[in-house]
Amino acid sequence: AQTVTQSQPEMSVQEAETVTLSCTYDTSESDYYLFWYKQPPSRQMILVIRQEAYKQQNATENRFSVNFQKAAKSFSLKISDSQLGDAAMYFCAYSAFWGKLIFGQGTTLQVKP
Amino acid sequence: DAGVIQSPRHEVTEMGQEVTLRCKPISGHDYLFWYRQTMMRGLELLIYFNNNVPIDDSGMPEDRFSAKMPNASFSTLKIQPSEPRDSAVYFCASSSRDRGDGYTFGSGTRLTVV
Description:
The complex is a heterodimer.
Chain A: E1 3-5, E2 10-14, E3 19-21, E4 24-26, E5 33-39, E6 46-52, E7 60-61, E8 64-69, E9 74-79, E10 88-95, E11 102-103, E12 107-112
Parallel strand pairs in A: 2-12
Antiparallel strand pairs in A: 1-4, 3-9, 5-6, 5-10, 7-8, 8-9, 10-11, 10-12
Chain B: E1 5-7, E2 10-13, E3 19-24, E4 31-38, E5 42-50, E6 53-56, E7 65-71, E8 74-79, E9 88-95, E10 104-105, E11 109-113
Parallel strand pairs in B: 2-11
Antiparallel strand pairs in B: 1-3, 3-8, 4-5, 4-9, 5-6, 7-8, 9-10, 9-11
């Protein structure tokens, strides 16, 4: 069965600094999708970034980028120039063939002014 | 597009009552998912549909829970009878494989059973 693991329950970063959130997953599939979602206190689930497993290039969205290591089954999220608005719970998620989306346990990110 | 629309946003009910949560997916999306979020168990997939047909309901906790999707633009999740341990935030999400859209979530329904 596919699983997603986020080993950091909480992280903190100073405003304007860079932080990396870790995620590992387990699957026997060769093609799949990986996601990072942000959940602020409003509880809305917001898609941050998406990576397709067959693409070698790491996805980037403005200040957010990923380090996708397929062989190691690792998918970390880097947030550059952290802002107060980045404070939220971050979830790593996996899906194969647009079927069910499986989530990790989440990492709470605190941004210190 | 207005996104995935869920109602109600909040629901408080007494133990033993029937609760119905509603979801309108994004037009053109052919997958619909129901998730439950709690502090203890995180985000759990309850059930998902493809083209209105339930594909996997293995996450539905027990017979008190049922979900339907009578057409492409509407789905319900019903709990009957409700219990205090059902208190959680329930999310609906939709996606489209053909359109390559990501999974879009509704704003969730916070259910409190007293």
